[in-house]
Specification:
Strand order of the largest sheet: 3-1-2-4
Largest sheet: 4 strands, mixed
CATH superfamily: GIY-YIG endonuclease
Radius of gyration: 17 Å
Number of strands: 4
Number of helices: 4
Length: 116
């Protein structure tokens, strides 16, 4: 029983990588960006959903199917560091700000976004 409590406490203390990633079409230079508090988990889910034809963004899913996975790149744009104040657990605003900054950068590069 103590082992179970110990594992639960360890899990609560885990701090997964968080940040923003991009899915970019090499065919039409469109992209989709998303922020998350769990990059690895969200990336795994995204790749699985795209492969299973069940990604929520229908426009992106259609082009993924039409162009093929080999014509897309998925990469992490930036990691968001945890605050030194360890009591902070909500990074929603920080991630929203990060997304706005990256949207501006990508628009300057003349990239078009998939509609959300």
């Amino acid at each position: 029983m103590d082992r179970k409590k110990e594992l639960k406490a360890q899990y609560k203390e885990m701090r997964p990588e968080m940040g923003i990633f991009i899915i970019r079409s090499e065919v039409n230079k469109k992209c989709y960006i998303e922020t998350t508090q769990n990059l690895r988990g969200t990336l795994n889910r995204t790749k699985f959903q795209l492969g299973a034809n069940s990604y929520p963004n229908r426009e992106l899913q259609k082009e993924w199917n039409d162009f093929g996975a080999e014509n897309f790149t998925i990469e992490i744009l930036e990691n968001l560091e945890y605050d030194k104040d360890e009591s902070k657990t909500d990074y929603t605003e920080d991630l929203a700000l990060l997304q706005m900054m990256w949207e501006e950068k990508l628009l300057k590069q003349k990239l078009e976004f998939y509609k959300k």
